[in-house]
Write a structure and sequence with these properties.
This protein has 2 helices and 2 strands, in the order H-E-E-H. The chain is mainly alpha-helical. It has one domain. A hairpin with a 2-residue loop joins strand 1 and strand 2.
Length: 80
């Protein structure tokens, strides 16, 4: 009886998670792209002093989950 509701809730949570991954990945990638347009040498700096990852690697790491989430959302038809 509650399995249909639980299944629908789980699907809505997964859909919201994919949308969140897509949006946050896109915003992070856009941030790195804007930094690179301003000054191409800044992408070799770290994200922050306490985060030892370069901006170009951060942009790549943000773009991949965003792209995967986009295609999953594009081909996924949630049940009504």
């Amino acid at each position: 009886m509650n399995t249909a509701r639980d299944e629908k809730t789980a699907e809505r949570i997964a859909f919201a998670f994919l949308r969140t991954m897509f949006l946050f990945g896109l915003v992070a990638w856009g941030y790195v792209a804007a930094i690179q347009l301003r000054d191409t040498q800044l992408v070799y700096n770290t994200l922050a002093e306490w985060v030892p990852i370069r901006l170009d690697y951060f942009g790549e790491a943000a773009f991949v989950p965003s792209m995967v989430a986009y295609f999953l959302l594009k081909f996924w038809e949630p049940k009504k």
